[in-house]
Amino acid sequence: MGNENSLREQKILSYTGFAAKANKIVYGKRGLRNYIRSFQRKKVILIPKDTGSRVKLDVIKHCQIFDVPYIELNYTKSDLAKTLGKQNISVVGITDENIIEGILKTIQ
């Protein structure tokens, strides 16, 4: 069962890499809040396991208020940042609806 979860998370990171190459990633406090509140139909937020508790609680609270799905990953912030080709990324949103659909199918 643990191996299955690991494969799912690797798929999610792959989708995230595609989104980054297509420039369909949102990050940063202001960017994420605007994204969560936006009128885009499909949304998803990815939260690495070592994200600070204040940031994590704030993002989860906003996701719950605006009914946005979020995924708490077993990967670290540095794993996520490496996938995106960035540094110091703790939470990301994806704006491409096809990639979001793929991620949401992966976790079901």
Automatic annotation (TrEMBL):
Gene3D superfamilies: 3.30.1330.30
UniProt KW keywords: Ribonucleoprotein, Ribosomal protein
Single GO cellular component term: ribosome
Species: Petrotoga sibirica
Pfam families according to UniProt: Ribosomal_L7Ae
InterPro entries (alphabetical): Ribosomal_eL30-like_sf (IPR029064), Ribosomal_eL8/eL30/eS12/Gad45 (IPR004038)
Protein name: Ribosomal protein L7Ae-like RNA K-turn-binding protein
The Ribosomal protein eL8/eL30/eS12/Gadd45 domain, residue ranges: 11-97
Keyword match Ribosomal protein: yes
